[in-house]
């Protein structure tokens, strides 16, 4: 389905994605990194991932254009096969890979894949966040590593079809601007952990056909349907909104509104939800904290009541009334 159009038809337009300024800056930086046939990019790959190999004086840059994602995927697989047999350095600019996710093919487009002289393959991720004094924001590096791990899995799927199967390196190259300049800096990132986690998650996913079989007969997600029909269709698929969804899903704003309407605790974050045990709604949390419900022997209930007492004492000492107005229930839960 087209989730962007679906979100708009549901009355919750998606704010998912980067700003136009960020996209322009990122594209300009990527163009600089890949200029002159990728000379600077290959220099960084050689220095950070394969210093023992011959220096990349020149590299092959095959044309990967083809009609449709299926055609581009086939063309990429052919280019990888030819590069592995030819030897030398090869740079694949925006190749197209395919990975099976829950029984359905997902098409992926890494920034670059480099074939080394020994025939091995490496993933390159180019990001626009800065690398200051040789290090970058750990959260952003972690997100880039998880993204690269998916590309590694897709490359391994291509490699398994070749004989002999080329080695897909588990260290990827992360390229970022150096110290807020437009000069590229590279860092090798080990993605073995992220690859293993992603592989386990993919293996445990419920297959698309299984989900479809459980939907009511005639369920449809066409954006031209009425809002009532689309809302009913989306509600037929279970979802648990969390703030992290805002950076990963086009339907996050719709699910947030539904979560608020249901008074769900998950909208305040999965870590908080995990700590609250069986208390799934904000109302249940406040009721337990105020001693109106819950088992006092339950550690979660006991912790909530102690937090409520401490909050009341703090407000009393500060000269503020301890009563919590109804519109501020969410803020009260954050305090607890």
Structural summary, described in words:
The chain has two domains: 34-204, no CATH class; 263-335, no CATH class. Strands 1-4-5-6-7 form a five-stranded mixed sheet, with helices on both faces. Strands 2-3 form a two-stranded antiparallel sheet. The radius of gyration is 25 Å and the shape is globular. It is built from 13 helices and seven strands. Helix 5 crosses helix 6, helix 11 (282-289) packs across helix 12 and helix 11 (282-289) crosses helix 13. By secondary structure, the protein is an alpha+beta fold. The relative contact order is 0.10. It has helices at residues 3-9, 20-33, 35-48, 68-86, 138-159, 192-204, 208-214, 227-235, 252-261, 270-275, 282-289, 299-317, 329-335; strands spanning 90-93, 97-101, 104-108, 112-115, 121-126, 171-177, 184-190.
